[in-house]
Amino acid sequence: MTVRVRIAPSPTGSPHVGTAYMGLFNYAFAKSHNGSFILRIEDTDQTRSRPEYEDGIFKSLKWIGLSWDEGPDKGGDFGPYRQSERTEIYQRHVESLLHNHKAYRCFCTAERLAEMRAYQRANKLAEGYDGYCRDMGQEESERRLKNKEPHVVRLMVPDLGECVMEDRLRGPICYDFKQIDDQVLIKSDGFPTYHLANVVDDHLMKVTHVIRGEEWVSSTPKHILLYQAFDWTLPEFIHLPLLLNPDGSKLSKRKNPTSVEYYRDAGFLPEALLNYLGLMSYSRPDQQEKFSLDQFVSDFNIDRVSLGGSIFDLQKLKWLNARYIRENYSPEQLWDQLSAWRLNSEYLSKMVPMMQNRLHTLGDLIPACAFLLATDVEHDPAILQSKNRDASTSAELLHTVLLALEDMECWEADLIKANIEKTASFHQIPIREITSMLFVAVSGMKVAPPLYQSMELLGKDMTRRRIQNAISVLGGLGKKKIKKLEEKWAAARHNSETISDKAVDNE
RNA sequence: GUCCCCAUCGUCUAGAGGCCUAGGACACCGGACUUUCACUUCGGCAACACGGGUUCGACUCCCGUUGGGGACGCCA
To answer: Is the CB of A5 under 7 A from strand B?
Structure first.
């Protein structure tokens, strides 16, 4: 049997280090068994998937040094490798489930489901779909289908019994079917959910080992049920522990830089990052901490992974990166790396127009722009804090900026400006009050080149990180405050969207 | 809240019942080297969550407690 494994990222944001982490272990497992490593794009979420992000995934994985045998950009015998191009396949498969009464159409509206959940929560009942449409007659189901009533297709999960899944690292894990509700397989837009698409594709692509993050453990019973419904052989399941924030929670961009692009922009070498990832929950038999991808693969043994989640420790990453810099490069080679990074005329020349009026001598350029070429900047709370506000309010303002920038897909000065303006109007304060502080947060200095252009040049992830650091220098924000602020922000955004929608309608 | 997973220094980890007075690495603290800094080097600090079993013997096996995390979406 040829080993075939895959990673299946969804293109809904900057490529995540967690994806690279899973990629590394899948790659190592495949290559150490002379198997194939597949890249599949899970873009079934039509509202969030973006082609630019897909491209970002390709680039980041290549940058870090991982290559795949089959994928959307490479082809292969089991394509297409982009789920949005496989809808017809899922339709066909779900028809057979419908036919065999393993699944059913559900016409419940979002409103009804929301009410149901509210009721369940209020009465402290188990949350999950209540099976309202489950026993609908075939005739009614067909009739409403012909009427083009919006609906989803749900998996028929048994009421009784239990599902035992075998995890290679954890042994048998037992789930009671009572705890599992009827999972949606096809959304009302006709696209499959992850659960359906992943099972169908893994089977059709002859995936032998499903190596993925621990967050998937609890949905594995649904997947097993699907394999059984189709009468397919199960792959082997291997759930790897998660990468963690310093506080022990799942690594998240709210608290930490998570995108591979951040590490690139911050000046880390791809092989050091990849090497560091290979240290997470894993140790080589010889205890070596610095190793190449080939070395990692050569004696890779998935049974050596330890089960506790690993905190992603920037300090140790920096130490490893430093070792690569001094041990693996001649000065000439290092210069090549530096110019591939930001010390090149393409990047540096962008500073010139924004600095021209500010230069007294040519030598003024670099000191003033140093923050654009730095991994981190030092924040002085005394100058960071807004003059007429306390540290906590200042932090709150900065956090709002983070929220405003979060969903930006296109990182350009004009759009950044527009989003900062939103922040100001949200707090009903002059934009100055925010920008003056933001200057310091982003640059670490009181005097800096134009803000929005600097942010554009720095890059989204670096900018985020600077602001996060600034917030923590200001003493951080409590969980409650953050939650409250985020709710208010979401509500305000919702309102402004409905207002602008109406405006469009009126026209 | 319910279900599931996990548990060795602050962090990453070694440890497959006696090899453990628990080893290594990062960070931190000292010393040496160095015009300075860095590198290097020597040393130090620092952990088996707790309670019960099993056993001649538990870091290691079993049970419980506690703690942490994850999942409970027409997101993946």
So the answer is: no
